[in-house]
Specification:
By secondary structure, the chain is of the alpha/beta class. The protein has 8 helices and 7 strands; from the N terminus they run E-H-E-H-E-H-E-H-E-E-H-E-H-H-H. A 7-stranded mixed sheet has the order 3-2-1-4-6-5-7, with helices on both faces.
């Protein structure tokens, strides 16, 4: 089974506000874009992924991610994360109604293609499935097999909400790169320890130089 991933990205100027204790206002948009670029590049290199659709209203992010090979879907609902994901999934299935879709966070800069493939292969056994984040509170990946709606419930306590919605929680080891999203300075340090993609590494280096 080859998946279409839908990746949501809010306007860069408003992204990653919880990194304010680690990165100045001027650097946070650059970090958010670097995270997304490394995430999408790794996803496109995954053997279980057919293509990636990024839903965003940010023109710069759209250009940069489109240049990587992602399809850009306008965030027409403008109603927040879950509305954007539902819109993107519906857009994808307009032309390919039987395609399996998965929502993937845009802030997984340490993402490894083969670890993502392992998660997607496990998810293919279920109508809907999800992978909790490293903190075991949120969700980094939500999947819907052919014939099933995505029904995203991201946000506060999304692990519990996705489980309540009937999605199967994937209990996998050795997929840390798919779990490690970045919201805080501690998250960024954990991702750096795993080994991030080149764009995040370069942007984080600017942060470290500035701190010194």
């Amino acid at each position: 089974m080859q998946w279409t991933l839908v990746v949501p990205l809010k306007p860069l100027a408003r992204a990653k506000s919880r990194l304010s204790d680690t990165a100045a206002d001027g650097l946070r948009p650059d970090l958010a874009l670097a995270f997304a670029l490394d995430t999408v590049a790794a996803a496109l290199a995954c053997p279980a992924v057919k293509d990636v659709a990024v839903v965003t209203g940010d023109a710069l992010a759209g250009r940069e991610l489109g240049a990587l090979g992602a399809h850009i879907v306008a965030d027409e609902p403008g109603g927040g994360l879950n509305a954007a994901l539902a819109h993107a999934a519906a857009f994808v299935r307009t032309s390919r109604p039987e395609t399996p879709v998965a929502a993937l966070n845009a802030d997984l800069p340490a993402l490894r293609p083969l670890e993502l493939a392992r998660v997607l292969d496990a998810a293919a056994e279920f109508p809907r499935a999800f992978l909790p984040d490293a903190a075991k509170i949120g969700t980094t990946l939500l999947t819907a097999s052919p014939g099933h709606e995505l029904r995203p419930a991201f946000g506060t306590d999304s692990r519990a909400r996705h489980r309540t919605s009937g999605a199967v929680e994937l209990l996998l080891d050795a997929v840390d790169s798919v779990r490690q999203d970045v919201d805080t300075g501690a998250d960024l340090r954990a991702a750096l320890a795993l080994g991030v993609g080149p764009r995040t590494a370069a942007t984080a280096a600017r942060l470290l130089i500035k701190e010194q």
